[in-house]
């Protein structure tokens, strides 16, 4: 059961902002939105997460819509090293039946070009 | 250093020869999980464990077994590997109240 929907691919010019969308229209009230990225065939790496407020860290910003049905990961100044597959997942942060099953799907292949 | 360690990183084996891919984490995480990644199919969950002696099936558990006898270890067992289990495998762990997953570097398995 896909819980998130992402475009299969996007591209972005180096130095420009990359905005990666994710649809999670069936998100539950206790589920957070998490973003990961995978460079080549390395293990996915955590980027950021949020519940309902916008979040920012040294890697990216996360904008979650007011109804929480979608979000956007923003890489403010994309570099060539940001070329990767980006995954958006939803997951609760408390014990419960949905904590274990996680759906990563195919993610979005972001290509940053010079 | 906090890490998830998988072994072996690369393995070529033959159909039917039992093998185990080990996964160990040093972060005292309760949750551990295995994924396989195939071209065009993304990451698919095989099994997960919420704590010691507690395991459950993910999306693609057929042909695999797991065990969680100790908190730090979560081995993936292929009792009788077949060519369709040729894949890139990832182990991941997290605390139950933190949520962020830490992934291993992957194990590339080829079954001939």
Oligomer: heterodimer
- What characteristic shape of chain B results from the CA principal axes? globular
Measured distance between first and last alpha carbons of chain B: 36 Å
Provide the spatial order of strands within the biggest beta sheet of chain A: 1-9-8-3-4
> Largest interface by residue count?
A-B, 25 and 31 residues
Into which percent range does the helicity of residues of chain B fall? under 10%
Q: Strand pairing plus helix content of chain B: what structural class?
A: mainly beta
- The total count of helices of chain B amounts to 0
Low-confidence stretches of chain B: none
- Main sheet summary of chain A: 5 strands, mixed
Encode the helix/strand succession of chain A as letters: EEEEEEEEE
Strand runs of chain B, count = 11
Overall pLDDT score of chain B: 95
The level of helicity of chain A is: under 10%
Proportion of strand residues of chain A: over 45%
Class derived from helix and strand content of chain A: mainly beta
Percentage of residues in strands of chain B: over 45%
Our Rg estimate of chain B from Cα atoms comes to 13 Å
Number of strands of chain A: 9
Which radius of gyration of chain A do the C-alpha atoms yield?
A: 14 Å
Terminal CA distance of chain A reads 37 Å
Q: Please, could you describe this protein's structure?
A:
- The complex is a heterodimer of chains A (114) and B (112).
- With 114 residues, chain A is mainly β.
- Chain A is built from no helices and nine strands.
- Chain A has a five-stranded mixed beta sheet with strand order 1-9-8-3-4, with no helix packed on it.
- In chain A, a hairpin with a 4-residue loop joins β5 and β6.
- Chain B is built from no helices and eleven strands.
- In chain B, the strands form two sheets. In chain B, strands 2, 4, 5, 6, 9, 10 and 11 form a seven-stranded mixed beta sheet that branches. Chain B has a four-stranded antiparallel beta sheet with strand order 1-3-8-7, with no helix packed on it.
- Chain B has 112 residues and is mainly beta.
- Chain B is globular and about 40 Å long.
- In chain B, a hairpin with a 3-residue loop joins β4 and β5.
- The interface between A and B is medium-sized, with 25 and 31 residues.
């Amino acid at each position: 059961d896909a819980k998130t929907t992402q475009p299969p691919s996007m591209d972005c010019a180096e130095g420009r902002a990359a905005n990666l969308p994710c649809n999670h229209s069936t998100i539950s009230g206790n589920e957070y939105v998490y973003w990961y990225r995978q460079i080549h065939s390395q293990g996915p790496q955590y980027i950021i997460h949020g519940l309902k407020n916008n979040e920012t860290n040294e890697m990216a910003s996360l904008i979650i819509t007011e109804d929480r049905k979608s979000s956007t990961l923003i890489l403010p100044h994309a570099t060539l090293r940001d070329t990767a597959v980006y995954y958006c997942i939803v997951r609760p942060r408390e014990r419960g039946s949905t904590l274990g099953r996680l759906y990563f799907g195919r993610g979005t292949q972001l290509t940053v070009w010079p | 250093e906090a890490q998830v360690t998988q072994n072996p990183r690369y393995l070529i084996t033959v159909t039917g020869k039992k093998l185990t891919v080990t996964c160990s984490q040093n972060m005292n995480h309760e949750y551990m999980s295995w994924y396989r990644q195939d071209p065009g199919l993304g990451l698919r969950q095989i099994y997960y464990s919420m704590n010691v002696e507690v395991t459950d099936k993910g999306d693609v558990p057929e042909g695999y077994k797991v065990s969680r006898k100790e908190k730090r270890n979560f081995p993936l067992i292929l009792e009788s590997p077949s060519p369709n289990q040729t894949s890139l495998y990832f182990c991941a762990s997290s605390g139950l109240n933190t949520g962020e997953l830490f992934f291993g570097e992957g194990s590339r398995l080829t079954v001939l």
